[in-house]
Write a structure and sequence with these properties.
Distance between the termini of chain B: 28 Å
Largest sheet of chain B: 8 strands, mixed
Helix content of chain A: 55-70%
Largest sheet of chain A: none
Keywords (chain A): Endoplasmic reticulum, GPI-anchor biosynthesis, Membrane, Transmembrane, Transmembrane helix
Radius of gyration of chain A: 18 Å
Order of helices and strands of chain A: HHHHHHHHH
Main location (chain A): endoplasmic reticulum
Strand content of chain B: 5-15%
Bound molecules: zinc ion
Subcellular location (chain A): Endoplasmic reticulum membrane
Structural class of chain A: mainly alpha
Protein name (chain A): Phosphatidylinositol-glycan biosynthesis class F protein
Oligomer: heterodimer
Number of strands of chain A: 0
Pathway (chain A): Glycolipid biosynthesis; glycosylphosphatidylinositol-anchor biosynthesis
Number of domains of chain A: 1
Chain lengths: 220, 1085
Amino acid sequence: MMDEAELRRLSAGHILCGLAVVVSLGVPPFLFEDFSLLGSHLTWLCVCSACVITVNVLLLLTLKPNPSTKRSSFTHKVNKLYRTCLYFFVSCLLFHGIIVLYGAPLVESVGETFLFAVLLSSFTTSRCLCILGPNFHAWIRVFSKDGAMSVWDHSLQITTFCSIVGAWLGAFPIPLDWDRPWQVWPISCSLGATFGYVAGLLLAPFWIYWNRKRLTYKSR
Amino acid sequence: MRRAPLLLYLTWLSVSFYSGIWLFTSGFLLMRIELNNQSRCSEPPSPAPHRQAAPCWFPQRFHKAVIVIIDALKYDFAKYNPANNNPKPYENKLGIIHQLTTSQPQHARLYPFRADPPTTTMQRIKGFTTGSLPTFVDVGSNFASYAIQEDNLIHQMIQNGKRVVFMGDDTWDGLFPKKFYKSFFFPSFNVKDLHTVDDGILQHLYPTVDGGDWDVVIAHFLGVDHCGHKHGPDHAETAKKLTQMNQVISTLIDHLDDQTLLVVAGDHGMTDTGDHGGDSEKEVTAALFLYSKAPLFADQLQTDPPAVPQVNLVPSLSLLLGIPIPYSNLGAIIDDLFGFPRDKLTAQLSKTSAYHLNAQQVARYLDSYSRAAGDLPADKLRVLADRFSSLTAEYEQLMAHQEQQSEEELEAHLQMIIQGLRSYLDQAREVCMESWARFHPLHMIMGCIILLTSCFLCYIIAEAGSASTLPYKYLLGYPLLFSISATAMLGLAIWMSVVELDLVTVCAAATIVYQMSFYFNFRTRKGSEMSWRKRPIYLILSGPWVVLLVRCCSLFSDSYVVAEANVAPFLLTSLLTVTVVKLHWDSKLMLPTFNPLGNESLKPSLTPTYRKDGSRLLGLLAALGLCVRLSGLFHNCREETPDCQPSSFLSPLSSVRDPDIKNFSYLCCIVCLGFIVFFIRKWLQHYGNLNSSSPLVLYVRWGFPLIVLGIACYWALSSGTEDSLAKLRELTHLALVVSPRAIYALAALGLLLILWNPITIFMKSRASDEDNTVTTYHGAPGSAAELQHVIPQIYRKMQRTLKSRLQHGGVGEDGKKGTAVEAYGLGSVYSAAMVITISILTLVLIMLHSERLTPAFLLLLLEAFIILHIHGHVANLYSDGVELFSVPWYAVLAWSLAASQHFYSTGHQPVFPAIHWNSAFVGFQDGHTNNIIPALMVAANTFSASILFSAGSCLLLLWPFLCEAPTARRKKGKKESREGDTEDHDMPMMEMRLREDPDRFSVALLQLGTKYLFIQGVQLLSCVCAAMILRRHLMVWKVFAPKFLFEGLGFVVSSLFLLLGIALVLRVDCAVSNWFKRLIVQQNR
Ligand SMILES: [Zn+2]
Ligand SMILES: [Zn+2]
C-alpha cells in the first residue's frame, strides 16, 4: 500500500533538491564578481552540479531512502564510496560520449561539453547512486515498466526522464538564427535539463499522489 | 501471391502524388527560358528608314549616370506630404525629393515604380538590368552560378565603352562577376546589420563621383531594407535611416555636373512588417526619382505621375545613354523622358522613333522566344505580331508622305502611332507576365490538397491492410475505371471545346476522382472491420510520431532547412535510441551485468528474461552514432552559412597538389571500395548464397572485383591526367572514356542477370537411402553447422506437396526412393538478390561521385546495415514470428531519415550551385549530344542516397526474418538439453516464412510501400506548404523553393526506386516459385 509518510518525506526531499538549483542561481553573484547565468555559464555549471550533488548526499544521509538491511563494516563502506565515485565518473564520460554522438562539437568546447555531461550526471546518476546505491542491477530494474518498488523509485524514474527530455528539447533552439546569447552551446541544453529536472521534482509527488491507487509496491 | 495488383496499387499512389506535385509546381514555380542573344550597336532590331541619325540606335542624351538603388525604398517613403502634421517614422523623411520636384519641375520627378513579383532583391536586380520578368527558375545555360546570362544593361554599358563603377550589395558580384570597371562589395547576408553596407558605400561614393574616372556609378544601399526586416517600417530606426538617405541624395546632387543623369530607385517595397517577396500592393510599389541638372522634362505635371513599371527603366536608360536596348527587354520607354524641350514636332518625331525602336526590339525578342520555348500562348503572340506589323506599316506610310501634311495633322498622326505602339508594348508585357510572373493560388492549394489526400490514403492502407487481404477489385479496379472514364469525358469535352482546361487540371481531376471513389469503396468495404480509428489518441505521442512531427515542423523554418544536415542525424539517433530504451522499458530485454568490482551483496531478486541482445543493441547504437558522426565529415556548404568550410573530400583527387597525399587518398579510396565488395561477399557467403554456379553468383564472384578494378583504373587515370606524357595523352583519353563505359556495361549486365535469374540457391543432391528430404542450409557446404540449419517445415511442406502430387498422378510409391536435396541459401534468397542489386547500384554511384567520397558510401552502407540489424533484433524481441510481417513505423521513419542524412553526407545541399555537375561527364569526357543522359547522371548523383535507400527499403521487411535464425537457435539450444525432439519445430525458416503465407507477404509489401510513401509524402507536403505559406518570406527563393524542388524531385526518384525494389522482390518470388516447381518435378522423376 501507499505510504503517506514516505510520500511526505519524498516531497520534502524534492523541495530541498529544487532549492539546490535555486541556490546555485542565487548565491554565486555574492561570491564571484560579475557572475551571470549566460556570461559565466561554466562556473554556473560547476556550482549547480556541486549543489545538486551535495543536497543528494545530504538527503541520502538524513532521509535514508534505501535503508540497508545489513550492518556494514568500515572497509565495506570505503569500497562502496569508491565504487560510487567510479560510477559517477564513468557516467560523466558516457554522457560526454553520447552528447558528442548526438552532434556536439568534438574538439572545440570540450570543457563545456564535459561540464554539461557532469550536470546531466548530477541530475540523473547522482540521484540513482544516492537512492539505489552503486548497484547496476537495481538501476536496470528501476528503469523498466514494472520495476519501481517504492515512491523513491518512481520519483527517480520521473526526474531522470524529465531531465533527459529537457536536455533533448534544449537542443532545438540552437540552429535558429535569433542570435540570442542563450543559443550558444551548451547553454540552452543545460537550461533545458535544469528546467526538466526541476519540473520532474515538482511533478513527481503530485503524480505519485494522483496514481496512489494504482501503485502498489511489493515489500522488499 | 498477387503481384500485378500490388505494383499497380503503389504505382497509382505514386502517380497521385506526382499529379499533386505537378499541380503545385504549375502554380508556384514561375519558369522561363533565358535567351543568350545580345543586342549590338551594329545590328538594330530591324532596318527602319526613318530612324534618327545616331552612332548607336538612338542619339545619346547623357554621357554619365549615377544610379542609386535604395533597397526596399517604398513609394510611401519617398512621397512627401507637406499637409501631414503628424508623420509616421517613415513618412516625410526624404525632403530633398519634394524640394527638387516642386522647385525644378523640369529637372526632377518622382514616380511610383511598380516591381514585378517575385519581389526579392536578386530577382529585382535581374529585372531592372535585363528588362525582363525574371522568375524563380530562369532556365539558362548555367545552373551552377547565379550570374546573369541574358543580355543586360551592365553588359551593354561595358560593351559600349562605359566605365561602370559599382559599390554596395554583394549580390551584384554574383550576378555580374568580374564585370565592373571598379567595384566595392559589402556583404549583404546579415540582415541585422544596418550600417556596414551603407557606410562602406559612403566612404567611396563622393570621391568616386568627384574623381571623374567613371561613366556610370551604381550604388546599392541596403540599410532601409535591413531596417525593415529587423524593426519593421514603423520604427525610429527607419526614420534615422531614411534621413541618412535624404542626406546622401542631397549631397550627391551637389557633386553632379549637368551631363549626368541621377536615378534613385527602390528595388521593391515592403509590407507593414517589413518583409517582401510576394505580390501585394505594398511590396510592388517602390519609388523612382529622376533628376538632372539639364532640363529633363518638357512640361510640368499637374497631378501625380502614373506608375512606371520597373522594366521601363531599362529601355529608357539605354536610349538616353546611347546604348542598345538589351535583347530580352520587355519594358517600354518612359514617355516623359523623350519629349525634349525642343520644338514640339521634332520632339514628337524623335519620341515616335524611340517608341518604334523599342517596339521593334520587343517584337524581335518575342519572336526569338517563341521559337525557343512554347510557354507563351501562340494565338496571343500572333495577335501581337499582326498589330505590330500594321503599326509599322502605318508609321512608314506616314513618314513617306510627311511633306504632304500640315504640322498639326502630322502631330496628331504621330500621337496616334505613339499610342498604338505604347499599347502594343503594354500588351506584350502583359502576355509575358501572365505566363511568367503570376502565382496561381488555386493550383497551389489544390496541389496541397491532393498531396494531403494521397498521404491520407497511404496511411489508411498502411494501417488497415493488416487485417486481411485487400479486395483489389473494389479498391483498385473500380476507382481506376471511374477515373479513366472521368478523364475520357473531360477529354471529350475539351475536344468538343465545351470547356477549356490544360493538361495539369485534367490530370488533377482524374486523381481526385480516383481518390474519392477509392475512399468511398474503402469505407463501404472495410468500414466494419477497420480498427485503426479506435486507437487511443496518446499513440500519436509515441516516439516515431513525435520525431516525424518535429521533422515536418523543422521544414517550415529556414534555419532548420539550412541546418538539416545536423537535424536529420540528430532525429535519427534519437529515434533509434528511444526505440531501444522502450524495448528495455517494456522488459523485453535486460542488460548484461556491468560489475567491475565483483558482485554486490544486494542482488536484485528478479530474474528477468535475460537476453544477450541488450549489449548487442547498445553496441549497434554506438556504432550508428559513430557512423552518423563520421559521415558528417563529407558535408558541403551553402551560402547562408558563411562560416562553414566545405569538406576537402568533395574536390576531385586531381586537384590535390601534394603527390604523397594524393597517393595516400587514392589508396584509401580503393581500400574502402574493396571493403564494400568484401563485406558484401562475406555477407552472401555467410548466408550461403555464394555456393551455386549460376551466372549471377559467378557475376558476384568475378564481376564485382572487375568493377572495382575498372573504377581503380579510371580514378588513377583521371586523377593523374596532367602528369601523363604527351604521347600517352590520347591513350589515357581513350581509357578515360572506355573504362567508365565498360563499368556501366558491366553493371547493366549484372542487373539483367538479376532480372533473368535471381536465384542464388545451391542445390546439392545426394543419393539418400534413409528418406527423401529437402533441406536448406546456410554457410559453406560441409561446415560443422550444417545440420543446424535444416528447414524441416519446408521439407514437410514439400513432402506434403510431393505426396499429393504423387497421389494425384497415381505414380504410387516411386517418389519415396528419390534423392535427397540440400539447398544452400534458400533462407536468404530474397535479400541476396536485393543486396546484390544495391551493391551494383552503389558501385556505379560511387563512380559518379568524387573519388574521395567513397568512405561516405561505405558509411552509408554500414549505417543501413546497422539500422536493419537494430530493426531485426527489435522486431524479433517483440514478436514471435507473426508480427514480423508488419514493418513498424519507426523503422520506416529511421530509413527515410537516414536517406535524408546521406543526401548531405554524400556532399550535397538542396541549392543549385551545390549540384555536382562534373558527374555528367564520367565516361563522356567530350560532352553529350543530347540532354537526357547528362540529366539522368546528375540526378543519379544528386539523389544517390534516396536511390539506395528506397531501392533497399524492402530489406526492412526481409531482415527480421534473417535475424530470426540466431534467436531461434538459442531457444532451441536451451530446449535441446531437455528434449531433443523439439529440434525440428524450432528451426529457423527465415525468409521461407514469407513463402508460406503468400497473401500476407503481398499485403506486407503493400504496407511497407505505403508506409514509405506516406513518410516521404508527409515530408514533401510540409515542404510544399512551407513554400506556399512562406512565399513572402525573405528566404523563399533561396531556401524554401529550392528545398521544395529538391524534395519533389527526390520524392519522384524515391518512389520510382521503391517500385523497382518491390518489383525485384516480386521477380525473385516468381523465380522461387518456379524453382520449387522444378524441384518437385525432379523429385517426381
Ligand atoms: Zn531588396
Ligand atoms: Zn529585403
